[in-house]
Amino acid sequence: MNAAFGDVTVTVDDDGVGQVEMHRPPANYFDASLLDDVVTAMAWADRHGCRAAVLCSEGSHFCAGLDFGATGTPTSEGLEALYRRAVDLVRGPTPIVVAVQGAAVGGGLGLAMAGDFRVGAATSRFTANFARLGFHQGFGLSVTLPRAVGHQRALDLLTTGARIDGTEALRIGLCDRLSDDPRAGARALAAEIAGSAPQAVRSIRSTLRAGLADEFAAALEHERGEQLRLMGTDDFREGIEASLARRPPRFTGR
Are 208 and 102 in contact (CB under 8 A)? Predict the structure, then answer.
């Protein structure tokens, strides 16, 4: 079975493995519309017997977050719409295995962390680059990143904006498995999950994720407020200009 919703396609095979694929290559920049398509596709998969879903994307990179060069500074309303759908994604009942080819950057890393598992390659790149752009992390990373790697490692990644490869991501718990083909590796893990008793899987997942969606939603409200505040600073403007010009930023603290 298959369907399409905007820039997202979805399939569910006879074994209960779903595949939700974003089609905005090469970088798969997101916005509220794309995330709405992802959530709609996930809901469709749930209704059609999906026991575990692979979230993947077409192109060189999994997701590079928001495209500041094309869309400019996000509005409060735009962020609210984006994050509302992010909460819907986290509240979904089906385990999600994210296939990370290329880069997961900024909000794209947040999207990857919203899943239950991540499968990358040794060459995959993971970056929480918000501080290097002059503003606060978003997409619930305040909650999901420390859950995966611990408080101190999360603080390190967020304040330095360090880029790490798949091998390091696996070592610290940011990534769960490595594969030369992340999509094939993610599908293999999803098939393992789908082969377990579905009611037991959902019950176990519900226990281990207890309170996550509420924490995620609360974090998003705080993150959005901090992002909007810092987007009005000179450092944010410098961070975006430096990123687009591919040069080191020169921050002044203003």
Answer: no
Strand pairing report for 96-100 and 52-57? parallel
**Eight-state DSSP code of residue 63:** B
Helix (H, G, I), strand (E, B) or coil at 45: helix
Q: Where are the domains of the chain?
A: 2-180
Write out the chain's pLDDT in tens, 254 residues. Answer: 899 999 999 999 999 999 999 999 999 999 999 999 999 999 999 999 999 999 999 999 999 999 988 877 888 898 999 999 999 999 999 999 999 999 999 999 999 999 999 999 999 999 999 999 999 999 999 999 999 999 999 999 999 999 999 999 999 999 999 999 999 999 999 999 999 999 999 999 999 999 999 999 999 999 999 999 999 999 999 999 999 999 999 999 99
| Sheet hosting strand 8-12, strand order edge to edge | 2-5, 8-12, 17-22, 52-57, 96-100, 117-120, 177-178
Q: What is the rounded CA–CA span in Å between residue 34 and residue 151?
A: 30
Q: Which CATH number fits domain 2-180: 3.40.50.300, 1.20.1290.10, 3.30.750.200, 3.90.226.10?
A: 3.90.226.10
